[in-house]
Design brief:
Layout: H1 4-31, H2 38-67, H3 72-87
Helix pairs in contact: 1-2, 2-3
Length: 90
């Protein structure tokens, strides 16, 4: 049976895939040099919503890890993973 932590990590993985897909759609649209278009506005709005959800999930996972008294090395790995993902702009 999956733990709460595993379920949150699965949900975050899905949100990251959606984030990457939308970011790629935006990049593709920008490459076509379309300056003003409804598709880009909608994609940007979707990306913003996913960023908010990702941030919330990251906070919940970190909080749960602290509550479950996870080893410091595991917590550090999790924090570095989040930082790596967010610093890549994806």
């Amino acid at each position: 049976m999956a733990t709460v932590m595993e379920n949150m990590k699965k949900e975050r993985a899905i949100m990251r895939r959606l984030h990457t897909k939308i970011a790629n759609e935006i990049e593709s649209t920008l490459e076509k040099e379309i300056r003003i278009c409804p598709e880009l506005t909608a994609a940007w709005s979707n990306l913003d919503e996913i960023n908010i959800k990702l941030s919330e999930l990251n906070d919940k996972i970190k909080s749960t890890m602290l509550d479950e008294d996870i080893r410091e090395e595991e917590l550090e790995k999790e924090i570095l993973d989040v930082q790596k993902y967010t610093s890549n702009g994806v």
